[in-house]
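call fold(seq) -> tokens
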Amino acid sequence: MAELSTIARPYAEAAFAAAVEGGTLTPWAEALDALAAFAASDSMSDVVSDPRVTSDQKVALFVSLVPAVDAGLRNLLAALAEHGRFGVLPELAAQFPALQIAHAASADAQVVSAFPLGDATLASLVVSLEKRFGRKIVPHVSVDPALIGGVTVRVGDEVIDASVRGRLAAMDAALRN
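ret:
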């Protein structure tokens, strides 16, 4: 269901960010898997949908089901309870491993330079890109003299234009407006 996936995505991304910040990716993944299994059960679904059970009681119930719940996970459960979103836990848990894979993976960078780049310059550029994108960068370099000077870098759908041609085009647009 696309809607459930869309609803779960921000929760999964927030959970992943909290797990990365705390350095607890594995415990979070295990806890989310356990919570998702509980949330998917019919008996738990009945409890979660019961209007007589308060949000605090629902959070306490889920916290009691998983050992070693940290403050970030408790906050996630509280947010889910507040918005009536315990039903997205299975989808949230399914999205979490994909976020782990994306976080650990490398990204290809298409680097176009006006002139051939030396090894030291390329290494420095790669280090800067890795800091910016937070992952390992694999550069694919090509030369395009039409840039006049500088480089353009494409990582995924993000483009960094640090070329003289790009700066001249920006100045031209600014002067025309």
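Residues 2-103 form a domain with the Peroxidase; domain 1 fold (CATH 1.10.520.20).
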